[in-house]
């Protein structure tokens, strides 16, 4: 039986633009959302694991819980032992967290990456405890999700990270971490995509060195 697969559960940038707003200028917002998707896809690609992308074109169900549960069940149909669910809203998530989750799933049936709001940026689940009805009934998209997941099964817990849904969230991340290398690299990555992001990042009171005219490139993501 195959080991672990990654499920990227997200929406396309064009559709996500209707729900999350980081910039008033729609093209800039769509570009940023596209980069968030690219970042998590790159992370999955470089993990060495098989991965599946479920966006609005292939998600099935009326509620978030139904759509996610159906997506996990679809991946398990390929006989994987574990599924790691990732979204696109946690720029702090990096190869270390994913590598740790993969390792923990070797000895744990549930791995949770909690966010700062009571939700989760990563869920790793073993097929032996996956119950579609119970899984979809969890309080998704709420501050009670993490505690409900912990009640679902004894879990291994990863580091708590920030997720982002709007400019205020990004500002809180930058302020709380004082521009650590992870966030600094992420912001540099955004800037390298085009000058449309300059106005957005200036609103976030990012330090002036980021706005230098020298060419900036994203650091490679690899294991």
Topology:
Elements: E1 4-9, H1 13-16, H2 26-45, E2 51-54, H3 64-76, E3 82-86, H4 95-104, E4 110-114, E5 120-126, H5 132-136, H6 145-152, E6 156-157, H7 167-177, H8 181-191, H9 198-203
Question: How would you characterize this protein structure?
Answer:
- The chain contains nine helices and six strands; from the N terminus they run E-H-H-E-H-E-H-E-E-H-H-E-H-H-H.
- It has 223 residues and is an alpha/beta fold.
- It folds into two domains: 4-157, Spore Coat Polysaccharide Biosynthesis Protein SpsA, Chain A (Alpha-Beta Complex); 167-211, no CATH class.
Order of helices and strands: EHHEHEHEEHHEHHH
Q: What integer value in Å does the Rg equal?
A: 17 Å
Oligomer state equals single chain
Which regions contain 5 or more consecutive residues with pLDDT less than 50? 191-223
Structural class: alpha/beta
- The name of the CATH topology of the largest domain is Spore Coat Polysaccharide Biosynthesis Protein SpsA, Chain A
Strand content bin: 5-15%
Our count of helices gives 9
| Helix amount | 25-40%
Q: What is the spatial order of strands in the main beta sheet?
A: 2-1-3-5-4-6
Mean pLDDT, rounded to whole units? 80
Which second-level CATH architecture of the largest domain applies?
A: Alpha-Beta Complex
- Number of domain units: 2
What is the CATH domain class of the largest domain?
Alpha Beta
Instruction: Estimate the global geometry from the Cα principal axes.
Output: globular
Give the distance, in angstroms, between the N- and C-terminal Cα atoms: 24 Å
- Total beta strands: 6
């Amino acid at each position: 039986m195959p080991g672990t697969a990654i499920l990227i559960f997200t929406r396309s940038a064009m559709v996500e633009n209707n729900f999350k707003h980081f910039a008033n200028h729609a093209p800039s917002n769509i570009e940023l959302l596209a980069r968030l998707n690219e970042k998590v896809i790159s992370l999955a690609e470089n993990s060495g694991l098989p991965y599946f992308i479920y966006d609005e074109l292939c998600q099935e169900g009326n509620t978030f819980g139904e759509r996610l549960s159906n997506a996990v069940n679809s991946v398990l149909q390929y006989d994987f032992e574990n599924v790691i669910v990732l979204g696109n809203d946690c720029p702090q998530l990096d190869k270390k967290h994913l590598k740790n989750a993969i390792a923990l799933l070797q000895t744990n049936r549930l791995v949770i990456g909690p966010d700062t709001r009571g939700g989760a940026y990563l869920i790793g689940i073993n097929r032996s405890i996956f119950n579609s009805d119970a899984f979809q009934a969890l309080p998704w998209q709420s501050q009670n999700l993490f505690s409900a997941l912990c009640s679902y099964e004894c879990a291994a817990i990863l580091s708590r990270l920030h997720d982002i849904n709007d400019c205020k969230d990004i500002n809180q991340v930058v302020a709380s971490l004082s521009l650590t290398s992870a966030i600094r690299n992420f912001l540099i990555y955004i800037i390298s995509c085009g000058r449309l992001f300059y106005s957005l990042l200036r609103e976030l009171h990012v330090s002036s060195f980021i706005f230098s005219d020298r060419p900036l490139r994203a650091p490679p993501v690899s294991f």
